[in-house]
Design a protein that fits this description.
single chain, 270 residues, alpha/beta, TIM Barrel, 8-stranded parallel barrel, 11 strands, globular
């Protein structure tokens, strides 16, 4: 089965969704992960007008790009933020997405003790009725306090639902914990349902995420782990540049094209 290979619109952080759609189309991609992250990249957002959201939908259709996933990052451990995440789920359903992506957020209880995996799983399990209603799969990203796929797997196993899987980010384990992504992927590949395919230059806490093939992530080894496991989960390319950001839109467009060429060179169909 052909693997879905998309571009995360967050690559175009600081630019408009229209510019993102045009750049992704020009690079030759046919799928997009829309970003609806409050206070960061609000390419689409529940508070936008119905007419505007329809215009984005029309632009995607005209460009031949399928919005199959939504990055709706919210702190799932903060009960006051759950309505925000439910709104993002509704928005994902409006666009016809199959997946909604989120990290867990700061996993602390009211007394500031670090929440156990069981407590985190309970918060995630409470979202299952909404996932059913909107026919979505929630993919939890290794990020922050939960930096490795191995940790996310322990939580996903406790949730124990086909509606909740792992979004394995190939660079976050390095950035947050100095982890080896290949070794980490082996520990959790059976529960990986989505991947942020992201390259990395430098070590922990160094914000440098270039076009694919320009960093140190061993993508051939990662893809071999997936192949050996028979895992055909979708890829969503994420390029976050340095902390200074890209110099202009042309640099983003070129990085997306370079990433396309890199994956084609490894035998993938875009």
């Amino acid at each position: 089965m052909k693997r879905i290979i998309a571009v995360n619109s967050n690559c175009y952080h600081g630019f408009s969704i229209e510019e993102a759609i045009d750049g992704i189309r020009e690079a030759g991609f046919h799928y997009i992960e829309l970003t609806a992250t409050k206070g960061w990249t609000e390419h689409v957002f529940p508070t936008m007008s119905f007419n505007y959201l329809n215009s984005v939908k029309d632009r995607l259709k005209d460009a031949g790009i399928v919005p199959f996933a939504m990055s709706g990052h919210t702190n799932l451990m903060d009960t006051e933020r759950i309505p925000d995440f439910v709104a993002n789920m509704r928005l994902a359903a409006f666009f016809g997405c199959d997946y909604i992506v989120s990290s867990i957020g700061e996993a602390h209880l009211e007394d500031k003790a670090v929440a156990s995996n069981e407590e985190v799983a309970k918060h995630v399990r409470d979202l299952l009725p909404y996932l059913e209603d909107y026919n979505l799969t929630l993919v939890l990203e290794n990020h922050g306090d939960h930096a490795t796929g191995e940790v996310i797997k322990s939580i996903v196993d406790l949730v124990d639902s086909p509606r909740v899987l792992i979004n394995f980010d190939t660079a976050n384990g390095i950035y947050f914990a100095g982890a080896d992504p290949v070794a980490d992927l082996r520990t959790c590949v059976d529960k990986v349902g989505f991947l942020h395919v992201k390259d990395k230059i430098g070590g922990p806490k160094e914000w440098h995420f270039p076009a694919l093939g320009q960093g140190s992530v061993d993508f051939p080894a990662l893809f071999d782990v997936l192949k050996q496991a028979g895992n055909n989960a979708p890829f969503s390319i994420e390029i976050e540049f340095t902390s200074a950001g890209p110099k202009d839109l042309a640099e983003v467009n070129q990085a997306v094209k370079d990433s396309c060429s890199y994956l084609k060179g490894l035998g993938f169909e875009i």
